[in-house]
TrEMBL record:
<protein>
    <submittedName>
        <fullName>LacI family DNA-binding transcriptional regulator</fullName>
    </submittedName>
</protein>
<keyword id="KW-0238">DNA-binding</keyword>
Length: 330
């Protein structure tokens, strides 16, 4: 394998000039730059990126903290981040935190020790969060909620949820259940706010018994559906706070002999690819997951380059998609 000394010999320039041409080409004359390039090409020289990174004091790496890598919503956000990072010449290091603050701390310390340059956090910010945003750590919160400090990218979860529930009301549903995420998850808080707003706009009384707590995973949707079927006064529709729980809930209702949507309308949130192919297809909120990823990465790179962004809170548009899982009550 060719070394920097071989390039120096081939071009007739010093090793110092070769490294300068690689790290700060603007400081090398066009004539010498051309000689370096020709030698590199001829010898197929691959510069040692690691030592260059140390010299430049940058890792060319960003960390993405993912609370649940198995949730395909996050996969799409990551795909958007990758697209932008690749263009910027950065690698993306996935930090699958499994919702553990201890694991998050380990990844934050990678930035503190300069093994990575910045962080995109896909876990929504919780009030009083001790971890991020943090002084000296460049970070963006993607898929955040209302009142998130620092640089954020999100949709309006309150408004989107309100829209879904108002649609169910417009179909004639009055007893509308909810399969929520964990009660202290900020997405749960925002989405429940939207549900309550919709009820109150139509003078429907809020009934806490109709809220069944899930955790955004499939199994919790299934178990929540069973809980609903055991109720004396079963709701006619259920607003699920994500697609995973909605798809599992549809199975739960069907297993118990209820037809979706005839006996039970079901709605989701995210619009995962599978939601278009399940039976029945799922009425849901389409979050612009890839765009959320792209925008977060663009924002992070702006911050990394030292530019103070004009806008630090980006609220992206979503779409409400009506499919087969909802109808008027029988
Ligand atoms: O954290 C889980 C959920 O929050 C995802 O399914 C998506 O809806 C995100 O916003």
């Amino acid at each position: 394998m060719a070394t920097i000394r071989d390039v120096s010999r081939e071009s007739g320039l010093s090793t110092g000039t070769i490294s300068k041409a690689l790290s700060t080409p603007e400081k090398v004359s066009p004539k010498n730059l051309a000689r370096v390039e020709a030698a590199i090409k001829k010898l197929n020289y691959k510069p040692n990126m690691l030592s260059q990174k140390f010299r430049k004091k940058t890792s060319n790496t960003i960390v993405v903290l993912v609370p649940d890598i198995a949730n395909l919503f996050f996969a799409k956000v990551i795909s958007g981040i990758e697209t932008v990072a690749q263009k910027e010449g950065f690698s993306v290091l996935l930090g699958d935190t499994k919702d553990s603050i201890e694991r998050e701390k380990e990844f934050v310390s990678m930035v503190e020790t300069k093994l990575a340059d910045g962080i995109i956090n896909l876990r929504p910010y919780k009030d009083g969060d001790a971890l991020l945003p943090k002084e000296g750590i460049i970070s963006v919160n993607a898929s955040s909620c209302e009142n998130t400090p620092g640089a954020t990218v999100r949709i309006d979860n309150v408004q989107a949820s309100q829209k879904v529930v108002e649609y169910l009301i417009s179909l004639g549903h009055k007893r509308i259940g909810v399969i929520s995420g964990l009660a202290d998850n900020p997405h749960t808080v925002d989405r429940l706010k939207g549900y309550k707003k919709a009820l109150s706009n139509f003078d429907i009384e809020y009934d806490a018994d109709l809220i069944v707590e899930g955790d955004f995973n499939y199994w919790s949707g299934l178990s929540a559906a069973e809980t609903f079927t055991r109720m004396a006064d079963i709701p006619t529709a259920v607003f699920c706070m994500n697609d995973q729980m909605a798809i599992a809930a549809m199975k739960g209702f069907t297993d118990k002999g209820l037809k979706v949507p005839d006996d039970m309308s079901v709605t989701g949130f995210d619009d995962m690819n599978v939601s278009r192919y399940c039976t029945p297809t799922l009425t849901t909120v389409a979050q612009p997951a890839e765009k959320i990823g792209e925008k977060s990465a663009e924002l992070l790179f702006e911050l990394l380059s030292g530019i103070k962004p004009k806008v630090t809170e980006h609220i992206l548009p979503y779409e409400f998609v009506i499919r087969e899982s909802t109808s008027a009550p029988k």
